[in-house]
Write a structure and sequence with these properties.
By secondary structure, the chain is an alpha/beta fold. 24% of the residues lie in helices and 28% in strands.
Length: 487
């Protein structure tokens, strides 16, 4: 494959004879969060072998990733994402769109990863010092069909890490960026594919609003919300697919084209069972095993012993208090000697089983390494922040706050924004005007928290905080419930 830079755009070309009717297969991954390198899902070795078999049979294929790939498990995080990008190089990805979690190590690290990649990072709305830093689109000629691939990054990418790691970086409005880019290439291509790390859930910017505002998108490969769409779906005239999370599935979208237009399509999500007969690609698997061995000595160290399992299941930590969230908040509060502490569901990525816990297991559950901070907040500010947990009975949000130092009742018969009652702070009623010392991870940014100045900063990670807390409290008991829901 060759790369040419022309007129500010990157064009990837591969040549074959144009057939009046042809098929094109999009193999797509997304929201793997490093787990392409782990044994949890299908694994990069099998995905690579499946794609390579198609290439060897001269089947037109694109291998795409819609973001949140480079971080999320301890092995990939130790290399600041380099191991994951190297594996993707071996697999010969055609394009990658950075998601919010790909900014976790900072903007400059992501730019370094882009330089190390043998495939283009594609995003129309990421800027550094006012200039686009990634290709907004690529055009690939496949069997005589010009396929335009546009990428877009979510607005919340700029809160993935601390502000000092994102100085000079910004993300523009995703919908406006896609609208501009579609208009730019629509007369140059036959098929438009948008790789959108947006999801359906965000009320402000989501794929529903995108497709309503921007006609002419043939295929939308979605990510960000971790919700798989087993058979794909149509939204208006657009085919939408989403592979879900953690490398559990490989998406296979087969497009039938006649006269360079899509006339039929089929989406399948392939899991480990479906790919059981596929032999892993040897050089990809060898690299992964090498990385595992390289990190094993560090990650196999036992750092604590748990008397009970800590619940970090995604659906649980984003919708209610779990013992993992509460215990981590307790550890933060104790370390900072704060009145109140909270963590949010987005930081809690896996459960931790009872018994001896290795550093690797702990870091897989708590992968974020940003520091603990304290802020001085009034009782009213604290209440206003936590109220977002209770806008709806079935709320599922990465911003869901797990608390320490507080108890309260939630009454859903009351108006939104005023559903917390009987609020106690360490046994005393919350006072609206009183200033409390609040501890949380510096990455917490939702609902105005970052506008409150940092008082103290502690260069400790969430993983080390939890391990130290468990090791100090040798008679650890499951945390008691802190929230009562009125009937």
């Amino acid at each position: 494959m060759k790369k040419w830079l022309c007129c500010g755009m990157l064009i990837l070309t591969s040549f074959s004879n144009f057939a009046r009717e042809t098929t094109l297969t999009l193999l797509h991954t997304g929201d793997t969060h490093g787990r392409g390198m782990s044994e949890e899902g299908i694994g990069y070795g099998k995905i690579s072998a499946y794609a390579e078999a198609m290439r060897k049979n001269n089947h037109p294929v694109l291998l795409l990733d819609v973001g949140d790939a480079v971080s999320g498990i301890a092995m990939t995080d130790l290399s600041l994402g380099v191991a994951n990008i190297t594996a993707m190089n071996y697999m010969r990805y055609d394009a990658f769109t950075p998601g919010n979690a790909d900014f976790i190590f900072g903007g400059e690290v992501l730019r370094t990863l882009d330089k190390k990649a043998n495939f283009p990072f594609v995003s129309a709305n990421v800027y550094y010092q006012g200039q686009q830093i990634f290709n907004p689109f690529v055009i690939k000629n496949i069997s005589g069909v010009n396929v335009g691939i546009i990428g877009v990054t979510p607005l919340n990418a700029m809160v993935a890490t601390t502000d000092n790691k994102l100085t000079g970086f910004e993300v523009s409005d995703p919908i406006a960026a896609i609208k501009t880019t579609v208009a730019l290439i629509k007369n140059k291509v036959d098929v438009i594919i948008v790789m959108a790390h947006l999801g359906k859930v965000d009320p402000d910017v989501n794929i529903g609003k995108l497709l309503a505002a921007v006609p002419g998108i043939d295929v939308l490969v979605d990510g960000h919300d971790h919700i798989e769409v087993p058979d794909g779906t149509r939204i208006g005239n657009t085919i939408m697919v989403n592979v879900g999370q953690y490398g559990r599935f490989l998406g296979e979208l087969t497009l039938t084209l006649k006269d360079k237009k899509i006339v039929a399509w089929r989406e399948r999500l392939l899991d480990r069972t479906a790919l059981a007969a596929v032999t892993t690609e040897s050089h990809v698997e060898a690299f992964i095993q090498q990385q595992r061995a390289k990190s094993a000595a560090t990650l196999s160290e036992v750092v604590m012993t748990l008397p009970f399992t800590l619940d970090g299941q995604r659906e649980h930590v984003r919708s209610g208090q779990t013992n993992l969230g509460m215990l981590l908040a307790d550890a933060q509060r104790e370390h900072a000697r704060a009145d109140i502490a909270f963590t949010v569901g987005a930081f809690l990525r896996d459960s931790i089983q009872a018994g001896p816990v290795s550093l690797g297991q702990l870091r897989n559950a708590l992968p974020f390494t940003l520091p603990l901070v304290t802020r001085d907040m009034s009782g009213q500010q604290i209440k206003d922040f936590i109220e977002h947990n209770y806008t709806d009975r079935q709320v599922i949000s990465g911003a869901y706050a797990h608390v320490s130092g507080m108890t309260f009742t939630v009454d859903f018969s009351r108006p939104v924004g005023d559903r917390m009652t009987q609020i106690q702070v360490n046994g005393a009623p919350l006072e609206s005007s009183k200033i409390y010392r609040v501890a949380c991870n510096e990455q917490v940014s939702d609902y105005g928290i970052r506008q409150v100045p940092v008082r103290d900063r502690y260069e400790v990670t969430m993983a080390s905080l939890l391990a130290d807390y468990v090791n100090r409290h040798t008679a650890l008991q499951p945390p008691a419930a802190r929230i009562h829901v009125a009937r």
